[in-house]
Each structure stands twice: as C-alpha cells, then as structure tokens.
Amino acid sequence: MRRTATVLLAGLLAAAGLPAESAPAVERKQVGARITENVPEIPADLVERLERYQNTRGASFVGWTRDGGMLVATRFGETSQIHRVAAPLGMREQLTFYREPVQGAAVAPASGPDVFVFGKDVGGSEFWQLMAYDLGTRETTLLTDGGRSRNAGALWSRDGRQLAWSSTARNGTDSDVWVRDMRTGDARPVVTEGGSWRASGFSPDGRRLLVSRYVSINDSRPGEVDLETGRLRMFPVAGGTASIAGMTYAPDGRGVYYVSDEDVDGRTSEFRQLRFHDTASGRMEILSAHVPWDVQDFRIAADGRHLAYVANEDGIGRLRVLALPEHREIPVPALPLGVVGLGDFSPDGSRLALTLNTPTAPSDVHVLDLAAGSLVAWTRSEVGGLDTDRFVTPELVRYPTFDSVDGAPRTIPAFYYRPAEVPAGTRLPVVVNIHGGPEAQALPTFNPSIQHLVNELGIAVLVPNVRGSAGYGKTYLQLDNGMLREDSVRDIGALLDWIATRPELDPERVGVYGGSYGGYMVLASMIHFGDRLRAGVDIVGISDFVTFLTNTESYRRDLRRAEYGDERDPEMRAFLERISPLANAARIRSPLFVAQGANDPRVPASEAEQIVERVRGNGGEVWYLLFEDEGHGFRKKTNADYFNAATVLFWQRHLLDGDV
C-alpha cells in the first residue's frame, strides 16, 4: 500500500507565535509498514552501491549440541534465527523460521531434554515469550503466558530438569524470578519481592538458586533462594552498594564465583573483578587482581576443571583461562584484536567456543582446544563480496575535555576511523557517532555502515566514549548522573574542539549520529553546538526526560530513574525539563533526521513525534522515518537497509554538499 498526504502544521506554528502561511509542507508516504515524512526518494544507484555493505552478516555461538555440533544465531533472510552446524565450517541448517528475530537462546545440558529455549516478541515490543524447540521432534512449545509479559534470561539447572527466568507476568511491572519443572511443566514464581530480579545459577543439586535484584548499573543486590522452602537470603555487600553479576556456584557447590566492584578492606574498587568466595571458610579471593580493567564475563566447564573469563581492556577483549580448583592461569593462543564473546565449554570440558568480532571482520564462532592450544573457525560469514583489506581499523585516540583529574586535563577515549590514501591538503568531513545506554560502551566491532562512510564517501568517523560510559571504572561511569547530565554533552563540545586542531579534518563539515540515549546526545549537541554541526541523525532518541520517564514501560521506569533522576522530585523535574531538547528545540537550526520504531517500549514513539513537530514548528528541516513493525531499533533487514540508505542520502545532501 502506498499513500501520500500533505499536512500543514498551522496549529503548531500558531501556538509558537509564527504565521500559519510559513508552515512547511510535510509529504507523508506509507509503503507497507514504513512511513516517511519529507524523506526523498532513494536513488536506485545509491541502493545498488550500498548493496554489498548491506549484505554482510555475522554468526554468534548459542550452545553445544549433544552430538558434538553447535547451534549458532545468524541471518540468512530478514531476521536472525537459530541454525545448527555439525562440524567446523560446515553448512548451516536453519531450525527456526520467524519474521521476528529470536533472542536469548539457551541449550539444555546434555543430561537434560534435547531442547533449546529461545525468546520471541512481536514487532519489537520486547514482550518476549519463551519457546522450547525439541531438536528430536522439531516441535516448538510455548512455555510462558503468551500475553503482554516480558520473559528473559533463561537459565538451566545442571541436570536440565529445571528452567529459571525473569518475568513480569505477575503484575506487568516487577520482574520476578520463575522456575519451571521441565518434566511436569509446572511453573511458579520463586522471588516476588518487587523490583527487577534475575536468576544467576542453580546449585549442583538444584535445590538452591542464586538471584540478584538489579537497581542500577552501580547497585546489584545478591541473594540465594531455597527452592524447597521458598526462603530468600540476601548476601551482605561490602561498602553497602556495588555492581555484582554472574554469580555461579563452584563445581562442588562449596563456593561462589562472581564479578564485583565491591570495596576491598575498606578501599574502593574502581573495576569489576572476578572473585571467588569460599563459603566454608569465608575467604574471598580476587582472581583478576592483576587486571586493572572490568571483567565482563566468565564461564565454568561442566567437568569443573577450567574457568574462562574475558576482560575489557580499553575496549579490547582479552581471554584468560584458569585451571580449577587451584586458579592457575594456563596459556591460550593470541586472539585477533577486537571483541571476544564467551560461548561455553563443550560438554566434556575440552573445548571452549568463542564469538570473535574485529573492526574488519563480522562475528564468527571459533573453538579453542585447551590441550592443543589451537583455535579453529566453525563459521565463516559473508562480507558482501567486499575486499576486506580495504576495511579500516580504527585508531584509539584520547582528547582533552573541560575538567581535570589530579591536576591534568581529563581525556575522553574515542575510536577514530580515518579514510586511507587521503590526498595531501584534503580536509575530511566527519560523523561523530555516539553510543546509547548511557551506561554502555562503544567497542571496535565490525560496522558495515561505518566502513561504507569511510571507504566509499571519504567521511572520517569518530566514536567517543563520553563520561558515563562503562568500561573505564566506577568513577567515570557516574560522572554524568543526575544534575551532571549535560557534562557528557560538553564532552562532545570538546571533541569538536579537537577536530578543529586536526589538519586532515574539516570542522565546517561535521555531523552527529546516535541512537536511544545517543539520540538525546544528538539533539543536545545540535542545541549547544548548532553553529558547528551541519546535520544530525537521531534514532529512537529521548527528546524530553519527563515525558520519557512518564511513558516508558512500567517495568523500566525505576531503573531509568536511577540513572536520569526521579521526575517526581520537584527540583529534579525542573532540571530535567530545563535541559530537555524539546524545551530548547528552537535552537536546532541544522537539518535533522529522526527515525523511530512504533512499538518501542523503551523510548516511545511519542518522543520522536514531539521533537519532529517542535523543530518543524520553528521552521526547521526534518526528515522523519517510522516503522510500524519495529521497536527500539531496526532488526528486520529490509527496514535496516532502507534506514541506512536514507541516512547516506541525508549525509550526501547535508554533509557532502550534495556530492554523491
């Protein structure tokens, strides 16, 4: 279906004190689930040039199968689905076939049923329902209520007889921990204390379950529930508040491994360390004390002989493997510089599956043989027939910002993608790409859109980790909290200052791009530094913190208040209203492209609609794109391809002065 309509925003302009006759015309078109306003027709030759970049794909590890093969997640159609691979570089046999992507798949242990569990929502709503796929019969069974509940974090007991997960089924707001008996089908909530709870690990005998309440990225509250009596026992946290994750019982059940940034002997710990607590003696051992970075994940082999963990060292993943129970580090081969995703040990404990991703290669699954010390590729994903030698590896740079640390200027890390073979004297246009979260971290992963900008359009790309980003310590993480929100925006101003000092970069041609919280940063940057920004692309971004906190799904509201501030407090509400882009939209004078999913449970579509109307009401140029079958981002290939093509056209028009 295709509809075209012209809308005059006379009422909005009148409210803004502007004459109705100056209202810009809005050309609205609908093609299937895609709605555009003032987005020009995408030229066919642009689509053709993008085709190879948009047909790259990656694969990630899901779990081992009992026949020695594995399951992986990859996309061969519209969305990512589950595939089976029987041997290294073997064919990928697709098992799930849905228009919606599957997520959070977990394979049952070899001693349990021959099934895997996965989550699936509708249209990006994130009301995931858990499904069990029987690898023998190839039949799928719905495990959860099938309604408007959010179910995630599936976790198997060691014998495969029980499945735990988090669910909002009880009241739609609180995330309780549920457990299902996979033999009888009986399911019950075992933690209903209120708040956002997660299951971490079953005891070896299946009678106890480690759980935690997530309050914020800085505050997790661990405990243990007795599954027979229902008694919940909370653990003490050194220092009162800490980030604690990944709690797992030791193979013999006599201790717990976990990741934590708790204080040690009264001293503040900046980073999340891998720790072991011996429950019999009460002794706590820090296993990653020699690594001054966050430990992001770990796995323990089912046979109890090895533990693997990955540390995030300035954005680069570093793998280490320990022999248990003595915690002795054993040698492993060097991995490519990039991001390491821990898969799992094989059922016999002899091999470790990894998902490796680098700036110049998409994710693929590799297997480390512990005895041989060899690394074997199990998948080799496509790169659209492109010459990977032309792909650009970013340089990690640090630029000074407005404040100081120990008397020296604070520096902000950023990944700098620079086109190769630039003629002398050329000044490159720049796109600043800001991550969301805000408690996230931009990593040097493969990004075909960035590679296209750099290699085909000659645009330099800078990807900063402004204050508030994870990965650089507890202090850095909290530098943008509450009333400090706009200090992260000031970090973008400092990056624009740095760009002006670089002879190869053109400070007169800079655009800004970001999604979710990064979308807020786009809007805020265009408000504060509009005279230095040519254009901006805002994807599912926050435009007003008060309306965002009011309208985000109820199960997320308190989690977001912990980061942004509580809008129910009059002083905080006044601050949030004052800094919100919607209140300052009159200062956005550069062209703006806003893209949104209609079903977004995190940042509702109303956030996009109100900033589009306000900027247009002030006479600004806005392209608007809405997908009726998407949520917080674009997970269907056709939609993502269109958005990417429209974004390239936007940069050509507004950053490259119309050059193609």
TrEMBL record:
Keyword Signal among UniProt keywords: yes
Domain Peptidase S9 prolyl oligopeptidase catalytic as annotated: residue spans: 446-655
Keywords for the protein's UniProt record, in alphabetical order: Hydrolase, Protease, Serine protease, Signal
UniProt xrefs under Pfam families: PD40, Peptidase_S9
Keyword Signal among UniProt keywords: yes
Signal peptide extent: 1-25
Protein name: S9 family peptidase
